[in-house]
């Protein structure tokens, strides 16, 4: 810990120089933090120093190369920048600016051609991407147009559906009112029928002539008619028998008697229905 403390103290003196070092709590944790900070700070200072030295070295190399080229031009071609006209100086500046814009390593023709080829390729790639984006934009516009058309159609269908629902709603309300009217009429008819039956009963009308009794008699007559049909069929089958005339005659007589009995019962029921019905002039409805 003492070695770290000495290292931290020297680093703080170097950082603050003639300024007094701020007071801090001396313990293992604080010393470790300051020691690590000193290590990082000195490592950064070394990196910066190396970078500065490298830049100075490159600057010296560039300056030496520039002096060499200038001496070469002066000795070989008797050429100097001071001998250039204003137009030549302008061309030279344009050449330098172009080289800096194209980020070439030098001002040679090969460097310019390579840089221009790279820019041409980038331009072609950009134009290709632009064409793809234009096609995609056209596709999106078509889809958007189709979506708008579909939306308009759906709105029209929705409007028609709402109108149809309004019409059906009006019809349903009308049917509901008609149904209510019919129910009310039905209840009214039931009450009037019941009142009429009570009035008829009070005037001495036979209960067998009520609506329900007449319906029951009608159903019974229909059943008797249905029972007569198979007997007639049976009788007709007996009429076709020829092998034993005496036996056939017996069967025919039995069928005739049975048929006569049913017809008599049918006539009796019909006569009873007719005789039991009172004259219309004797009934008075209110």
TrEMBL record:
Domain of life of the native organism: Eukaryota
InterPro entries named among the record's database cross-references: HAUS1
Location, primary (coarse class): cytoplasm
Residue ranges that the Swiss-Prot or TrEMBL entry lists as coiled coil: 151-272
GO CC, any one term: cytosol
GO biological process, one term: centrosome cycle
Protein localization: Cytoplasm, Cytoskeleton, Spindle
Keyword hit for DNA-binding: no
Keyword annotations from UniProtKB, A to Z: Cell cycle, Cell division, Coiled coil, Cytoplasm, Cytoskeleton, Microtubule, Mitosis
Family in the record: Belongs to the HAUS1 family.
Name listed for the protein in its UniProt record: HAUS augmin like complex subunit 1
Organism, as annotated: Apteryx owenii
């Amino acid at each position: 810990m003492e070695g770290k403390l000495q290292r931290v103290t020297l680093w703080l003196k170097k950082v603050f120089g003639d300024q007094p070092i701020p007071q801090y709590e001396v313990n293992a944790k604080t010393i470790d933090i300051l020691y690590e900070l000193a290590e990082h700070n000195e490592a950064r200072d070394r990196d910066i120093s190396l970078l500065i030295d490298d830049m100075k070295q490159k600057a010296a190399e560039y300056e030496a190369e520039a002096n060499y080229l200038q001496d070469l031009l002066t000795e070989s071609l008797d050429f100097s920048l001071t001998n250039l006209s204003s137009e030549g100086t302008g061309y030279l500046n344009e050449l330098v600016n172009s080289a800096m814009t194209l980020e070439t390593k030098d001002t040679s023709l090969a460097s310019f051609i390579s840089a221009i080829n790279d820019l041409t390729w980038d331009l072609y790639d950009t134009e290709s991407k632009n064409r793809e984006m234009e096609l995609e934009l056209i596709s999106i516009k078509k889809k958007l147009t189709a979506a708008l058309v579909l939306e308009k159609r759906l709105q029209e269908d929705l409007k028609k559906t709402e109108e149809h629902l309004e019409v059906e709603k009006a019809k349903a309300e009308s049917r509901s009112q008609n149904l209510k009217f019919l129910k009310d009429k039905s209840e009214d008819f039931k009450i009037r029928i019941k009142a009429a039956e009570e009035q008829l009963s009070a005037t001495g009308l036979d209960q067998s002539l009520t609506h329900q009794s007449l319906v029951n008699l009608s159903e019974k007559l229909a059943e008797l008619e249905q029972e007569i049909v198979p007997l007639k069929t049976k009788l007709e089958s007996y009429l076709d028998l020829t092998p034993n005339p005496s036996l056939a005659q017996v069967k025919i007589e039995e069928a005739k008697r049975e048929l006569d009995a049913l017809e008599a019962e049918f006539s009796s029921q019909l006569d009873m229905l007719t005789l039991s019905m009172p004259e219309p002039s004797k009934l008075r409805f209110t």
